[in-house]
Design goal:
Elements lengths: L2 H20 L6 H8 L19 H23 L4 H15 L28 H9 L29 H10 L5 H20 L3 H12 L6 H15 L6 H7 L5 H14 L3 H9 L5 H16 L6 H6 L3 H17 L8 H10 L4
Helix pairs in contact: 1-12, 1-13, 1-15, 3-4, 3-15, 6-7, 7-8, 9-11, 11-12, 11-13, 12-13
């Protein structure tokens, strides 16, 4: 599988998992089963007034991707860049689309903020909104003690850029200041990057990531959840709504990551893994997105059910960002000594300002 298809698979499957879970995010398992049948939800159901609607999870994932691309352009054009500040700037553009009024001066340029559908309000997380609203300057870390999953659910694009662990930690720390809130994000991005760069399977990627980062201060809660997911898979135990409940609801970062990993480790298909990840009492859209990212980066876009892709909101936007993630680092020179037209085109889409 080529690199572009891994990127497309990761982002599209993540969004599909988010959209599948959107209709049941605030339902408990008995209610899901009563409404959708013994096996729970398997196809998109109306959410936010439409079929295939994504939530704030996918929106923030896309603005994270924009921030990473703009950081790349800035570094290569100016020779200096603080990526967390550029990512923060991008997330504040998302904050504006949700009706927020940032304290920092935010430029509303580039192409992504002009996508009308991204201005839809999709029950944005209170912690993300309050932390972004409180920040005085780009790069300011959150001052709360939250470990909600709003940090981990947006960081998949870090897998395709250098320093995935470190920058995903910095990204999540912009809104979530509890160590589990940002270290789970770093571990997730690092696992994805190992699959992307080395082509290793998920189990090996998890073990490598734990070996390098698992003993870092503050990692204990996340390590325990990830190791639990590994033990369950090694014992051949498939996820069930009752089994997932033992881990928690996925409302906090380490739980969401652990649930997503368990479902991805045990799945015989992308569809099966995502369906497991959303059918439980908890944060179904976030756990569906994480499982989708993990399965999509391994299996590619062809593994995503066509019936999901047909009605997936923002599909063309996601495809464009995936293309640009592969294209911009390979193409952008920054000094306008060659490929002038391409450099200008990239700058217009992702201004490095």
């Amino acid at each position: 599988m080529n690199q572009l298809d891994r990127i497309r698979g990761c982002l599209l499957a993540g969004a599909a998992g988010d959209a599948l879970g959107a209709a049941v995010e605030f339902m408990d398992w008995p209610s899901i089963r009563q409404k959708f049948g013994e096996w729970g939800i398997r196809d998109f159901a109306p959410a936010f007034g439409k079929l295939g609607a994504v939530t704030d999870d996918t929106q923030m994932m896309l603005f994270t991707a924009e921030g990473l691309l703009r950081a790349w352009v800035r570094h290569n054009s100016r020779g200096i860049c603080h990526p967390p500040s550029v990512i923060h700037h991008a997330l504040l553009r998302w904050y504006i689309t949700q009706g927020g009024k940032p304290k920092a001066e935010v430029t509303q340029d580039g192409w992504l903020i002009g996508v009308k559908d991204l201005w839809a309000s999709r029950a944005p997380g209170m912690t993300c909104m309050s932390a972004l609203g409180a920040s005085q300057a780009f790069g300011d870390k959150a001052s709360n003690d939250s470990k909600g999953c709003g940090g981990v659910m947006r960081v998949a694009p870090h897998a395709f850029f250098p320093q995935a662990f470190e920058l995903a930690v910095e990204n999540a720390h912009l809104t979530h200041a509890h160590p589990s809130g940002y270290l789970a994000a770093g571990l997730f991005a690092d696992i994805l990057q190992r699959i992307f760069e080395q082509g290793c399977d998920l189990k090996d990627a998890i073990r490598q990531s734990l070996a390098e980062h698992g003993q870092k201060p503050g990692m204990a809660e996340t390590r325990e959840m990830v190791e639990y997911a590994l033990r369950q898979s090694e014992a051949g135990i498939a996820p069930t709504p009752e089994g997932i409940a033992v881990m928690g609801g996925g409302w906090v970062a380490e739980e969401a990551l652990g649930i997503g990993l368990w479902c991805a480790l045990m799945a015989s298909s992308l569809e099966e893994g995502i369906c497991w990840a959303v059918n439980h009492t908890g944060d179904s859209d976030s756990t569906g997105l994480i499982a989708g990212n993990l399965l999509g980066i391994q299996l590619g876009p062809d593994a995503i059910p066509e019936r999901w892709l047909e009605s997936l909101e923002l599909r063309e936007v996601i495809e464009q960002l995936a293309h640009d993630i592969e294209w911009v680092p390979r193409t952008y020179c920054g000094d306008y000594s060659s490929n002038v037209a391409e450099d200008e085109r990239i700058w217009a889409r992702y201004p490095g300002s």
